[in-house]
Amino acid sequence: MFEWINNIWLAIFMIIAMSWIVSKAADKLGDVLHVLGIKLEIPTSVRGATFDAVSSSFPEFATAMIAVLLYKRFADVGVPTIAGSGIFNVLLIPMLSIIAFKGKNLIVKVDKKVVYRDMIFYMLAIGILILFTYLGEYTAFTGLILLFVYVCYTVVLYRQTKKYRKSITDIEIASEYNEMKDVLEEEEEEDIDIDMGYGSIVLWIAICIGFIWVSIDAIIQSAIVVSDTLKIPQYIVSVIIIAAATSIPDTLLSVKSSRMGDAEGAVSNAVGSNIFDICICLGLPMIIAGRAIPVSFGENVGVLAFLVLSMITTAFLLLKKNGVSKRDSLIMGFVYLLFLAYVIATAFNIIG
Fold it and tell me: Quick one: average pLDDT of 227-244?
């Protein structure tokens, strides 16, 4: 569809323009799913880890699927994009969410149970990815294991939702409805009605997914043009450019939640997005590919190491007894700068 993107200036323009469309479509998708979450009486931490995570991570899912189905470049486009996006999500998104937080206190405290829940499943997903990367190939079996991990994660979330529904009061439900109405009015979202029917919700979901899919196709084609023109390895372009472009929705959604005072939902979205990214956005394409996909452990070991480091950094800060201050959150930004320095140094053969 986008073979006419054939020069670097057009490619750069398309990356910027399509990233904007992706952010708008994913933001709309997030609003619709947020309404659905309220209608289904789902707790904020669960909603952040599921509906918010799925809506904001759909760009990554589209990237991996398009890389497999259209470009046949899963190893140097799909995997690096998910990994780069994962590092971005677990470092920069919590940092920006904490900075944007407008709660009563300047210290952000997240339920320790939520942190442990998400980090345990995230660590398990990363461990499986590292194991099969070390073995040198991804197969349908790899994808099935990752999907099984996500199924277990959703079972845990479902049990928490059942417990929450028994404890929630009608006053709390009404409060969430009113809060969501205020947010939609503030953002002038005239098309999204808190009382919309399920048919309208499904229609909006389909429209948003269509826009995201087409835009991601254009971003991948543009990134390939940039890579070929500047003689930069496609792997590096995927880790930085495509990963950042697909992470914009995660960022906007989490910052929005944090500004509403829902820091817990913002952090759950960031980490829940990564679990979805690795388990579904990588797992499903591995199954659909129908063949073993070779992968180099040597080329990916640095990024995988930063996936683990980013997780440990964020978990350590969120588990602090006294909460996370805005100053503490800057540590996450520093680790991400280290990651960028590593990627750039690798691209220019400064380090092996």
Answer: 76
One DSSP character per residue, 41-59 reads T--HHHHIIIIIHHHHHHH
* Neighbouring residues of 119: CB distance < 8 A, sequence distance ≥ 6: 271, 311, 315
Q: How confident is the model at residue 16 (pLDDT cuts 50, 70, 90)?
A: confident
Can you tell me whether residue 137 is helix, strand or coil? strand
Three-class SS state of 323: coil
Distance CA 22, CA 58 (A): 10
- What was the pLDDT predicted at 111? 67
Find out whether 268 and 118 touch, Cβ atoms under 8 Å.
yes
- pLDDT on residue 219: 82
H/E run at residue 121: helix 112-135
Question: In terms of C-beta density within 10 A (0-12 exposed, 13-18 middle, 19 or more buried), how is residue 282 classed?
Answer: buried
* pLDDT tens-digit readout, 83-126: 777 788 788 877 887 777 765 555 666 667 777 888 888 889 99
Whole-prediction pTM: 0.71
Q: Which of 144-148, 205-209, 258-262, 346-350 has the highest mean pLDDT?
A: 144-148
List for the chain the helix, strand, coil content (%; round to 5).
80, 0, 20
**Secondary structure tally for the chain: helices H, strands E:** 14, 2
Three-class SS string for 241-299? Answer: HHHHHHHHHHHHHHHHHHHCCCHHHHHHHHHHHHHHHHHHHHHHHHHHHCCCEECCHHH
Angle between helical axes of 263-276 and 140-167 (0-180°, round to 10):
160
